[in-house]
Please model this.
Amino acid sequence: MQRFEQLLLENKAWAKEMVAEDPEFFERLANIQKPEFLWIGCSDSRVPPDKITQTQPGEIFIHRNVANLVIHTDLNLLSVLQYAVEVLKVKHIIVCGHYGCGGVKAALSRSSFGIINKWLRHIKDVYRLHTSEIDGLATEEERVNRLVELNIKEQVLNLAKTSIVQRAWKFENQPHLHGWVYDLHDGIIRTLVDIAPGSHLDNPIYEYDNLEHPFN
Ligand code: CO
Model:
């Protein structure tokens, strides 16, 4: 049997197990999804959101990309964000990065990697804001891991700068924004930053003052 065929076999076994535990499980989920969380994480295969938080299908709405970036022109991310905030009405948005992130490591180097240069450029721009702090660290591992943390904080701020989040803050007093970092060495998630609904941003130029209700 080839490895991919084993995945399909495992899937059947899993579905059978779920029904054995809870006969209504799939029927219930098939009709509605009402997750409380939007997770924006790295695509890295070692950081599976539902596994590391022991959540079940239906509990987390998930978007993943290289180095968990929130880019304000990324239609994919923005579509997920708008649907999560305005339709699913998630209460929390979690940006979860991880130490040892390959995307961050690549961005911190001067190597060209082809088309992904354009994506990694956003991380270089975060480095540029903290050059002296990062360059002051002794090892490459420390420099990468500090940029991992600073990048997560920057992406949470990027969420707060969107009209989608600001509109929901104004009319729904949610969602809370969280920046988390996962440690591949011990499997533990640590919190880095929390932004409550309605918080002021570092510069008022990012705060829209003419937002209307999304369904007006
Ligand atoms: Co990564």
Notes: The chain has one domain: 34-198. The first helix runs from residue 3 to 21.
